[in-house]
Amino acid sequence: MTLFYLKLIVTPLLMWAISLASRRWGGLLGGLLSGLPVTSALVMTFLCLEQGTAFALGAVPGALGGLAAVQATYTFYLFATRRLGIATAVLLAILFYGLAAYAFTHWGSLYLSIGVALLLIGVLIRASGREPRPDTLARPRHRYWEIPLRMVSPTALLMLTTRLASWLGPATSGMLAPIPVIAWPLVVFAHMQHGRAGMAAMVRGNAIGAVGVIAFYLVMAGLLDAWGVAIAISLAMVCAVGLTVGLAGVLRRG
Questions:
Q1: The pLDDT value given to residue 120
Q2: pLDDT band at 102, cuts 50/70/90?
Q3: Structural Rg of the chain based on CA atoms
Q4: How is the chain split into domains, by residue range?
Q5: Residue 138 and residue 159: Cα distance in Å, rounded?
Q6: Taking residues 156-182, what's their average pLDDT?
Q7: Is the pLDDT of residue 76 over 60?
Q8: Distances (CA, A) of 232 to 35, 219, 221, 238
Q9: How far is 119 from 112, CA to CA, in rounded Å?
Q10: How many helices and strands (H and E) does the chain possess?
Q11: Across residues 124-144, what is the average pLDDT?
């Protein structure tokens, strides 16, 4: 019961904080924060506590396959919206994610998923950098239901994934862990409110954060058996945050 309340409280609070940060400091920071392995860390923590560490380790290849599918989906959306409307592009991107995630987790491999994810991260950083810069002086209209909707969606996915984990199995549970339920609403809302410039900034932040997500899974998988759940996931998060901040700084100077 304690784990249930932790899921119910922690996830929406994180979504609320990231949404406010995005409003206050812009899409790039919002993308960086939502691109960090927040949902992934929560899913993996609860999988360890409820299903055991062996189950969580078995979910890592699926999670990295899901991450590669996420980057493929952002790439699809970034280029599709040059010709299609937002609603059409969102529906096609969700369908594309399902197909890509299934392909990576059932027919791919751990190294293939990492390689494709890194390649697509490079494509996204380069392509988003060529988009116009967002107008920081513009004051978009914020609807009252936006943040509550963003808070509910990742909480619902976390509840569903961990609840059905024993039935779904480690591969599918891992595939669901990196679904961008925090980032995806932010990207779409940024597109509607700030146009392509705001959307591109959010996607760029997510792509940079995805490098940290890869580090998170690799460090967690390497330390989990030897160090235990709390230390392994904490160190993995520290590595993810450090790598993301470092890469963001290098790209900013460049």
A1: 94
A2: confident
A3: 17
A4: 56-132+144-207
A5: 37
A6: 61
A7: yes
A8: 20, 7, 8, 10
A9: 11
A10: 10, 0
A11: 65
